[in-house]
Amino acid sequence: MVSPMQSHELVVKTRAVATEVAARHADDVDAKARFPRETFDALAQAGLLSAAAPVEVGGAGANMQQLAAMCSALAQACGSSGMVLAMHHIQVASIARHGLSSPFFRSYLEQLVEKQFLIASITSEVGVFGDTRSSVCGLRREGGRYQLEKDATTVSYAEAADDFLTTCRRNADAPANDQILVLLRKGDYTRTQTTEWDTLGLRGTCSPGFKFVASGPEEHVLPGSFADSSAQTMVSYSHILWSAVWLGIAADAVARASAFVRAEARKTPGTVPPRAHRLAQVAAQLQAMRNNVFAQAAEFDAIMQSPGGMEELLTIGWALKMNNLKASASEASPKLVHEALQIIGLAGYKNRGKFSVGRHYRDALSGALMISNERVYSKSASMLLVYKDE
C-alpha cells in the first residue's frame, strides 16, 4: 500500500513526472491523439493517483490547493495529461466526500490507494444537450443488483480508465433531474464506441462517444443524490482544477516567450529587447490569473475547515464564484497564449521547436467549451437577479 505523502512531496513528485515523462511525450500524444500512457504509468508508480483519497484509507488527503498545484504542474508539460489528472481527482474526491459511509466505497478507496485505479466520469448523454443535471437513462434494480444502459456523447479517456462514475436517473420512473451516481467497475460493463476523437486540442484526453451496458452489485450506487455531490463537490473541484490546468498551459506558453526574449537579449548585451515590455505586461496578467485560481482554491480549503462548510458550498454566492472562476480562467488562458505567440513570432507559430506554442493555443481554446461559457453566464445571470453581494 502506498503511504500518505506530505503536500510538498505530492507537488515535487508531480513536477518530476511532468518534466521527465509528460514533456517528453507531449508532442507525440498530441500528434497521434493518443492517451498519455507513459505519464499515467509514472503517476501510478509514484502513488499520485490516490492524492485526493483521505488519509484514513491510506491516501494523501490532499486539499484543493495541493491538487490544483499538481494539475497545473502537469499541464505545463502536457495539457492533456493535466486535464486527465484533474478529471480523475474529481471522481476520487466525489467518492471520498460522499461515499465513506458505505463499507463498499471505503474498501474501494483502500483498493484505489493500493492499485492506483484510474477513474473517469460519464455525465454526458445523447438527448440532454449538454445539461449534466439531467439524465435520460434510469437505473434498474432487482435482486440486489443494478442494470444500466447509457449512450454518452463523450467519455474522457474511456479506453484507458479502469472504472467509471456515471450519472443516471434514480429509477426508470424518476424525473430527469432526480439523479444518482453509480460506479461502473471493470468487468461489470461493456462499451461500444459510437464517435471518433479527432479534435483541435486536448487530443490526448481521447474522449469519443460510447454506449455502456452495465450490471453489478447494488452497493456500487453512491449514497445520496447527484444534486448534492454535484453542488458540494463536482462543481468546485471541476472549476478549480480545470482552471489550474488552463493556468498551467498558459504558464508554459509565457515561459517559452520569456525564454525567447532572454535569447534575444543575449544577442544585444546592454539593451532591453523591444518585446520585453510586452512580456512584462503578459507576466502581470499571468500573475493575476494564478492569484485568482489559487485564491479560490484557498477559500475552498478554508470553507472546508468550518463546521458548516458543506452547506456553504450550496449557496448562491459560492456558485457564482465558481462560475466566475471557470469563465474567467477559460478566457484568460488562450489570451495569454496568444500574447506569448505575438512575442515569439514565427518560432512560436511552428508546430515543433522549443518556442512552439501551437499545442498550447489549441489546448487552451477548449476551456470555453467545457460546459459552455454561454451556459455558465446564463446561469449566473439568473442567480444575479436574486443575489445581493453584501
Structure explained in plain terms:
The protein is an alpha+beta fold. It folds into 3 domains: 7-117, Acyl-CoA dehydrogenase/oxidase, N-terminal domain (Butyryl-Coa Dehydrogenase, subunit A, domain 1); 121-220, Butyryl-CoA Dehydrogenase, subunit A, domain 2 (Beta Barrel), CATH 2.40.110; 226-384, Butyryl-CoA Dehydrogenase, subunit A, domain 3 (Up-down Bundle). 54% of the residues lie in helices and 11% in strands. The strands form 2 sheets. The chain has a 4-stranded antiparallel beta sheet, with no helix packed on it. It has a 3-stranded mixed beta sheet with strand order 1-4-5, covered by helices on one side. β2 (140-142) and β3 form a beta hairpin. α3 packs across α6, α6 (226-267) packs parallel to α9 (316-344) and α7 packs antiparallel against α9. The chain starts with 6 loop residues before the first helix and ends in a 6-residue tail after the last helix. The model has no long low-confidence stretch (mean pLDDT 95).
